[in-house]
Write a structure and sequence with these properties.
Blueprint: H1 33-42, E1 67-71, H2 72-76, E2 84-85, H3 86-95, H4 107-119, H5 126-132, E3 133-138, E4 141-146, E5 155-156, E6 169-173, H6 203-210, E7 213-214, H7 220-226, E8 232-234, E9 239-245, E10 251-258, H8 265-269, E11 273-274, H9 278-283, E12 315-319, E13 323-325
Parallel strand pairs: 5-7
Antiparallel strand pairs: 1-6, 2-11, 3-4, 8-13, 9-10, 10-12
């Protein structure tokens, strides 16, 4: 699972870069390598994942075979975690999109939806997400807007702008995301999927629309308690996290002890993620970004145009032990 040394990685520049749309093949790398090093440390990116800084004048689509790119803002403001959640993979597959085609302003809508679902004990799914959102396409990137007809909102105040996010990208082994993703061509149109659920009277719909919350950057502590991040290590191995919001002041994390016989917290949430393996690294080792990832992908099956309180409840004996974080997003205790 060890990636090729950086010195062995060659980047093949694309000779033709169309003027429109101003997508990932247009913006030239525009941040510093030390910033990427801080990102690697703060967000727990494994040394096995081949994360490296693009060469000068590279664009995102210049990623070498076996690699793809991600934007720093996915992690910083997008509440995106690696390993990637199965729910995000489900959304990408449902719409027939590649993670690198998602706007940094659109991804927080997906992660926020997963958060409010898990915070309210609702299992997130593509079908539920598709009730509240539809896909849009602007400037070479896909995003998600809220449906306004016949659907109550589940969120508000989405992010409206990010400065120079398209220039802050890095390369990472494609196998880190063990999921076949379709790189959608502009000629395929914007995906539109009909709502397949009779949702109005469903309990999950009532729960998600009962209290509309703003789409904000979430603390690592909140993600841990919601089962969306594994970047933590309790002092008590049988501890589990509880995160309670405190209004504008943010939130507080405490750790309670699991009841005897219950699996460890990380084991309880492990299945929420798509974990990279040696097999996935080998499977995508020669994948070229911009081409379909798998030979078995049926492109015709893809769609075409046509304030929350997180409380874990797995144990008792609440304790105010400190939680040890491996992410700067968690902030001071």
């Amino acid at each position: 699972m060890t990636p090729a040394p950086k010195s062995c990685i060659t980047t093949k520049k694309r000779k033709y870069k169309p003027k429109n749309p101003p997508g990932p093949d247009q913006a030239v790398i525009g941040w510093r390598e030390d910033e990427l090093n801080n990102l690697i440390q703060n967000f727990g990116l494994s040394s096995d994942w081949g994360v490296h800084f693009p060469t000068p004048n590279s664009t995102a689509l210049d990623a070498p075979p076996g690699y793809m790119f991600l934007y720093a803002n996915f992690l910083r403001e997008g509440t995106f975690c690696l390993s990637m959640s199965k729910f995000i993979g489900e959304v990408l597959t449902g719409y027939g999109l590649h993670i690198s085609q998602i706007s940094a302003l659109g991804l927080p809508r997906v992660t926020h939806f997963e958060f409010i679902c898990r915070a309210n004990r609702v299992e997130p799914s593509f079908e539920k997400f598709n009730v509240f959102y539809f896909v849009t396409y602007t400037g070479g990137f896909y995003s998600f807007n809220s449906c306004t007809t016949g659907v109550d909102p589940c969120s508000r105040d989405p992010p409206k702008s990010l400065h120079d996010w398209k220039q802050k990208f890095f390369y990472i082994c494609r196998g880190v995301m063990p999921l076949d993703m379709h790189y959608r061509a502009e000629s395929e149109g914007v995906p539109c999927v009909n709502v397949s659920l009779d949702f109005i009277e469903q309990e999950w719909y009532k729960v998600l629309t009962q209290k509309v919350t703003p789409i904000i950057q979430l603390e690592e502590r909140a993600l841990v308690a919601a089962g969306m991040s594994m970047l933590w290590a309790p002092q008590n191995p049988r501890g589990f996290p509880i995160y309670i919001t405190k209004g504008k002041a943010g939130g507080a994390m405490v750790v309670a002890a699991l009841l005897e016989g219950r699996p460890l917290w990380v084991d309880q949430i492990r299945n929420n993620f798509l974990h990279p393996t040696s097999e996935s690294m080998a499977t995508y080792a020669n994948t070229v970004l911009g081409e379909d990832d798998g030979d078995d992908i049926d492109v015709d099956s893809f769609p075409t145009r046509g304030e929350v309180i997180v409380l874990s409840s797995e144990g008792s004996e609440e304790s105010h032990q400190d939680l040890i974080h491996r992410s700067a997003r968690a902030g001071p205790q």
